[in-house]
Every structure is written in C-alpha cells, then in structure tokens.
Amino acid sequence: MFFVQRIIIILFAAILTAGCAGLEIRENALAGKGDMLSIHYTCKTLSNKLVDTTYPDVIEDKTVKTSQAFKTLIKPGPVNIAAGEKNPLQTEGVVKRFRPELLTLISHSLVGKKIGEKYLVKVESGVPEGLKPFSRYIKTKRKRTSSVIRKGSIKYFRQAKHRDPIAGEVVERDDGRKIKIIGVEEEKYTYEILLDSLSIDSPWGPANVKRKNRELNMVIDAEVGTLVMMNGNMGKIIKVTDEDIIVDYGYPLGEECLLCTIEIVERMSKEK
After folding, report:
1. What contacts 62, CB < 8 A, 6 or more positions away?
2. 265: closest CA among 39, 81, 80, 23?
3. What whole-number distance in Å separates Cα of residue 105 and Cα of residue 82?
4. pLDDT tens per residue across span 154-208
5. Which residues contact 270 (CB under 8 A, 6 or more apart)?
C-alpha cells in the first residue's frame, strides 16, 4: 500500500512539473503557422512617412510625418491575425485593397517569431496577375467646380443641432465653416456656403478653393509620386496635367517598400 501511494505521489509531482514547464514554454513559444495572434504594428515608407499604425499614441503624435495616404483606423488598437495565412478580406483578380494585403504580408513574417517581442520587417507587393488597365489606372479631374447653393437633410441637421433650421439664419457647421439657411422644406433645407477662399486637404494633395459669383472653383496641387488612399485602395500619382491627375492603383502598397515594426502582444486562446 505504501509503495502504491509513493508511485501516485511521484506521478502527481511529475504531472505538476510537466504542467508548469508546459506553461513556461507556452509563454516563450514561437508563433506557428495558423496561430491566432494579437499584434500591434507601425508601417512607414523608406522616407520615414507613416502609412499605417495600430498604436493610438503614434496617431496622436503631431511630430510624426504622415503620408498623404495615411488613414486612421476606425478604432486604433491591436488586431488579431492568423500567422502565415492570407487575410480573409483580400480579393482576387481585381485591384487588391491595401490593408488586407498588408496584413497578409505581415502574417507571413510572424511564423517562427517569439511571442511578446518586437520585430522590424520589410514588406512589398507586386501587381496582381491579370489586372486590367482600366481597373489599374484611374484619372480624376484636377480642377473642379461646384455651386455654393446646396441642399441638406433636416434629419441630420436635427441630430447635429438638436433643433430645426430657420430660414435666414447663419449656422456654423461641425467643420467650422459657416452656411446661411435660404429655405426650409419638409425633409430638406436649402443653404448657401459662406466663404471667399479656403485651403483644404484632398486625397490627392492640398487644394485651393475660391469663390466666383455662385460657384466654388477648386484646384488640386498634386505631385507625381504622392501616395493616395481611395476606398481602401492605395495608389501612386504617376502623371499630373493642367486638367487631370492619373493614379496607378496596381500595386497594393503603392509600389512602396514599407518598413514595419511589429509587436506580437499575445497568442489568442480558442475562446477569444
């Protein structure tokens, strides 16, 4: 009886020791293909301009130089990614979207990396096979004209101002620009934009807006080589004329080699 108890105690101690050792290995384990990981990342161009990041403090840092294509994540924070696997949101046979392609490239760099550490990797991506020129090269007008008289939704006005618009009043919008209410209907209201000139930031670069009579004339100051983000697709301006801007959306990362600092925060459990 004493001999049996001794064996049980030894086996129990061995299980405890193995269990602790297993936990220790788990903490310092390397990421394997298919592992679901929680990561942070910051990606910049070789000219040190920010293109994408999950770190809120990097987004808030006004000293960081940003690319024209930089778009803040809706909710900055760590993202979950399967190591060594393609991002499920990526498309095939058409222009590839920027962020799914970036996450796919990042995921392949994670296999074999240690959990809890940071890494610096280079990522780049070529033009997808079979991509048609009409999908790849997009032309947009450099000069644009619009009316200063426009219509707005009373529903959205109520949500912003908590009241109905009043004909004749001058209202300041959320963007700081002033408008004059001209008329009010059942669901719409008519307003006039009150400005003589304005400088704004367009997706293609800085733009100057000037008023002439009842029209707003905008001219975009675009430059060749500028990265552009449009509807989740990254492109690069390849030609600028007096009238047009031509953007190449063929390269998912804008024909750039990006330097990405990646932090593997943790390996996600199956429950997560």
Report:
1. none
2. 39
3. 11
4. 999 999 999 999 999 999 988 888 999 999 999 999 999 999 999 999 999 999 9
5. none
Query: Which residue's structure tokens are 């498309």?
Result: 91
d(CA 31, CA 88): 19
Non-local CB neighbours of 177 within 8 Å, separated by 6+ positions: 193, 194, 195, 198
What is the dihedral sign for C-alpha 70, 72, 76, 80?
negative
Identify the band that residue 252 occupies on the pLDDT scale cut at 50, 70 and 90. Answer: very high
Q: Which of 12-26, 70-84, 96-110, 170-184 has the lowest mean pLDDT?
A: 12-26
Q: For every residue of the chain, which 3-state class applies, written as one string?
A: CHHHHHHHHHHHHHHHHHHHHHHHHHHCCECCCCCEEEEEEEEECCCCCEEEECCHHHHHCCCCCECCCCCCCCCCCCEEEECCCCCCCCCCCCCCCHHHHHHHHHHHHHCCCECCCEEEEEECCCCCCCCCHHHHEEEEECEEEEECEEEEEHHHHHHHHCCCCCCCCEEECCCCCEEEEEEECCCEEEEEEECCEEEEEECCEEEEEEEECCEEEEEECCCCCCEEEECCEEEEEEEECCCEEEEECCCCCCCCCEEEEEEEEEECCCCC
The number of CA neighbours under 13 Å toward the Cβ of 83 is 24
Per-residue model confidence as pLDDT tens digits over 200-237: 999 999 999 999 999 999 999 999 999 999 999 999 99
